[in-house]
Amino acid sequence: MLTKTRTFRSPARIAILATAAASLMLTAGCGGGPRTKKGTSYVARDVETLYAAAKSRLDSGKARQAAVLFDEVERQHPYSPWARRAQMMSAFSYYVAKNYNQAIQSAQRFLSIHPGNKDAPYAYYLIALCYYEQISDVERDQKITDQALTALNEVIRRYPESQYANDAQLKVDLVRDHLAGKEMEIGRFYEKSGKMIAARIRFETVIEKYQTTSHTPEALYRLTETSLALGIPEEAKKYAAVLGANYPGTKWYERAYKLMNKYAPNATAS
Fold first, then answer.
1. DSSP state of 212
2. N or C of the chain: less Cβ packing under 10 Å?
């Protein structure tokens, strides 16, 4: 059973983010100007000083302050070339601060204003990561997981040749495995409760919708098991045969074979 897919902060993904974020950062003058106790004063400042102050906060690990200052760049200098970069750096800073909802809003706003910009692939990728980072274990509601899957597929669909597509595809595979794990969790619960038909529906979903995931062998075994419990050995034979043909060396096929020999010897799967 897949309990969590939170192996999210891979070195490859961090490298992609760091490279993309670095490309958005311009060299500017030294940050300065008046400060509040939190270092995010709203007094008017020239754009280079303000951008540099935001970058300095981000570099020193103060991502939340950086996000606010990047927002200020756009607010105070909306028609400056720096404003576009600040929009994306604001989204990235919110992401680093784990304020995922705000990061998504900032990235979406960037896309609404600059849909054809060269940084658009990065914006879509960042949105997908924000959903991906919030995926919880299989015992909880999977709405956010579905959103992550949709956002990741959007990256792949729009920018198949980009540096983000390969990483997005790897994450799609993990998300699909996670969703299959959720179906298995519910199916096992129904089976233990004696609701065999309801259990079968969940297990069938796994082999029909998530057949390339790690949960398929167990799903086939559970379908063999529930078919026998419902008194339909021919169905059990069919699932056991598929299991044997595709996963002959697994523990799930060995269990299925033993079940068939014990409860339906006249319909033993080959």
1. T
2. C
Residue 80 pLDDT greater than 90, yes or no: no
The architecture of the domain spanning 8-134 is Alpha Horseshoe (1.25)
By C-alpha distance, which of 59, 66, 74, 152 is closest to 109? 74
> Would you state the structure tokens that stand for residue 235, as one six-digit string?
């169905």
pLDDT averaged over every residue in the chain: 86
Residue-by-residue DSSP string for 143-172: HHHHHHHHHHHHHHHH-TTSTTHHHHHHHH
Rounded to whole angstroms, the Cα distance separating 109 from 114 reads 8
Identify the residue with better confidence: 35 or 124. Answer: 124
Q: Are 239 and 208 in contact (CB under 8 A)?
A: no
Domains of the chain by residue range: 8-134
Q: Is the dihedral of CA 129, 95, 12, 142 positive or negative?
A: negative
Amino acid letter for position 101: N
Higher pLDDT, 140 or 248: 248
CB 233 within 8 A of CB 267: yes
Q: Once rounded to an integer, what is the mean pLDDT over residues 230-256?
A: 96
* Contact between 180 and 5 (Cβ < 8 Å): no
* Total Cβ atoms within 10 A of residue 245: 11
| Residues sharing a CB contact under 8 Å with residue 125, sequence separation 6 or more, in sequence order | 16, 20, 155, 162, 164, 167, 168
Helix (H) or strand (E) holding 173: helix 165-192
DSSP 8-state class, residue 253? H
Burial label, 105 (beta-carbon count in 10 A; 0-12, 13-18, 19+): middle
Cα separations (Å) of 21 from 8, 15, 26, 190?
Answer: 18, 10, 10, 47
Which pLDDT does position 92 carry in this prediction?
97
